[in-house]
Amino acid sequence: MSTEAPIHDAPAPFSGAADAENADRPADFIIRSCDGFDFHVHKDILKFASDVFNDMFAFPADTSGSADSDPRRDGKPVLVVPESQSALHKLLCLAYPPDLHLLDSYTLVGEADLDRIVAVYQAADKYQFHRVLRLLRNMLDQPALIDAHPYRLFAIAKICGLGELARKAALSTLRSPIDPTAAFPEMRCLSWEEGHKLLRFHHLCGQRAAKYVEQKGWKFFSMAPAVGEAPSHYHVWAIRSHNHSHCCATSEPQWSQWFFNYTAHLASRLQTAPSHCTVETLELAPADRELAERCSTCSADPNRERDFENFKGMLAGKIKASHETLVDTYFDFSQTSK
């Protein structure tokens, strides 16, 4: 003989308990979660926040008390929904007016905050809580959050149909090597094809970026006069004479040895972390910096550090543009944009 699961009141402020906040506006409707929690809510707020509830409450409630009518508790109609207590609590906290400060306890900062975010987003979409959908999109579309959890944000974005977020997350995966141990709840909802495609995109970007550096695609702006400089000013690492003591590369006579070593190191790093950020953050190795300081020509150039940073910025821009072109041709985000 089966027994019904016990019913519990939802956590505050949807518990139905009398408090200062609800003293003059008691709840008049109950939403019951699939795991048996009753959320005591207000029809007027739901009508304003949700198109679905607005349409639902446009029809008079069945008060006949017949077996076919909706269940009631404490004189309030009860709507049983398939969403869990956790998802409903987050959804309603986002749906209620901001002046109630329910949002204060709901932020997306750490990875644990992302748990069940898909269920909340899907519920907001199902019941047409348009403001909640905008809030969730804004919460998810934070650079720090995307950079900290790019693979998980990619999966969340694909499941929820957020094309622009998926694009940003795909590009953010390039900031670090592929993590073969990455695991998160949304992974099981991402198809093998989509997951494999994301890893393949990372690999292709690594190949392209490393090849660009190895084949000296940067050569034209490495030797050219710096912006705003007289035509006679060239970057000091571009050797045009034999006056570079200690740092003239024998294998690459056109470039100072320390600069040649830097580009070789950079190409290797870009194979596994092909983001433009790798270019921006990779510094000269101590041995190569010492080599440059020992060269009378390189060490005497007052513009060396500035020109080197400008070179890195231009190279990073080229690599970033290449990745952004590839991501738009490799993925079809138009099918998932909302």
UniProtKB/TrEMBL annotation:
SMART domains in the cross-refs:
BTB
List, alphabetically, the Pfam families matched: BTB
* Domain BTB span(s) in chain numbering: 27-104
Q: Where is this region: Disordered?
A: 1-20
Could you name the domain of life of the organism this protein comes from?
A: Eukaryota
Q: What is this protein called?
A: BTB domain-containing protein
Print the organism lineage. Answer: Eukaryota, Fungi, Dikarya, Basidiomycota, Agaricomycotina
